[in-house]
Please model this.
Amino acid sequence: MATAKTDISIRDLVQMVESGELRLPEMQRRYVWRAPRVRDLFDSLYRGYPSGSILVWETDKEQPTRDLSVDQSRSPFSGHKLLLDGQQRLTSLSAVLRGEPVTVKGRRRPIDILFNLEHPDSLLEFTEVDEDSDDGELDDLEGEDLQDLSLPERLRNLTFVVASRALAQQPNWVSVTEVFATDSDQAILKKAGVTSLDDERYDKYAQRLQKLRSVKSYMYPVNVLSRDLSYEEVAEIFVRVNSLGVKLRGSDLALAQITARWPDSLKLFEEFQEECEENYMTLDLGLLVRCLVVFATGQSKFSRVATLSAEKLQEGWEQAKEGIRFSINFFRANADIEDETLLSSPMFFIVIAYYSQFKNENLSPEDVRLLKYWLYVASARGRFSRGSTETLLDADLRVIRNDGGPAALLETLRQQFGRLNFEPSDFAGRNFRSPLFSLVFLALRNQGATDWETGIGISTGLQGRQHKIQFHHIFPKALVKSQYERREVNEIANLAFISGRTNRRIGKKEPSAYLRDIIEKQGAEALKKQGVTDDPALHTVENYREFLKARRATLCQMVNDFLDRTREE
Model:
């Protein structure tokens, strides 16, 4: 029989992780869960909901393995139990129960989840609360301020939340890690203000703490693959199991097949990832795998991986590396794109890489000029977000193989969107999540836009948190949210690029006041370079829609001028 079944408690599984008895095969992806997913896991376990199963392979043979993303000892045993399914859950549980940080993208970060001793008896559905998000940082485009949230009402109905400094100081919110660190309730109850057995909260809190600790006794069904299976057979099982559950991306399943044919290849991919990171480009492992497939097969679909030999994979990888290096250099040196957040899709790395190698890195000045123009327009238009990514990418690869060049890529783009230039209507209702937002940033930076206080040019590469560029609501939300629609409040036309320090100093001041100060200290040119009118009549709340209309037209003109200069330089 190839598989045995047993039940193992979370307590024992975490111990197996800590001791190094349970490790990862090379085919496994890295830990990717964010803290809200960990919170949801504890919420489910606390309620007693089913939480899936674990798949393990026992082997006595030496196999390419890797550590989980939490600290592990080296197992003294010759054999290994390799974790095929359940890495995200067990890593999360180990991190919280042991109080160990996880390593994500080379950084060690704790996962701190808080438990509400005063949660409703009915255990209402959770609602995500992110108290620590920053407002408008370019490297965290999900950040928004919290003035629209009524936290006290929402928090009372939650059982678990991702920790914040403010909540951690509240007496009824306790660290899940601290609860598991001791069997005694005394210190926890004292912090919660319960100092006597006569306190009516004593029994309720004690029972809830005990229920939380009982999570360690939760029994996971564990399926164990036998020792006589080969690595190739196990890789096939891994692919099938995860395909059925749609738990992994296509790139993760392709990676499993690649490592089965090419042992220790994962280390090479991760070393190249680190090389890219040193050049300020954070590239997902899945992108590198897809790029390898493109160079090995001439198309982007992962289904062809199963037919590739180790030699073909290695040849494709060498070409992919050179292509990606060219892309990074092209983005930074030619297109002034300092990091990947300014692109609407990572697929642009592959297109530029493929074209560079097709041309043997021998590009004419016209090639460079039109390729850069195509990149700007395609990214701002959302080339790879309007249909199947693979279909669109393969279409661009075919254009390149047919020696069409950037001009042909532009024609494909024109057929997709109808026109390449922009109109003021394209800006209406678009916010910082729109792919057009990054093009506005590039156009303003090219125009010489500076921070409104320090005079330092805007850039994603500025050093120090005080100087880090954020997007700023010219008309603060607090002033306009009650009179105008949300989509108007968050429009690109209401956003400027300034440092975090300047953003905080402006705060919720009215534009009619602080813009006048900027003109006096920095000159009207400081506003003009950000596409902001110096007409005081448009700096009032009652004329907000007129302000948006005027700035849409200005930004549109600045973007089109920037693109025209790019195409004609």
Q: What stands out?
A: The chain has three domains: 1-114+163-246, 249-420, 425-568. The mean pLDDT is 87.
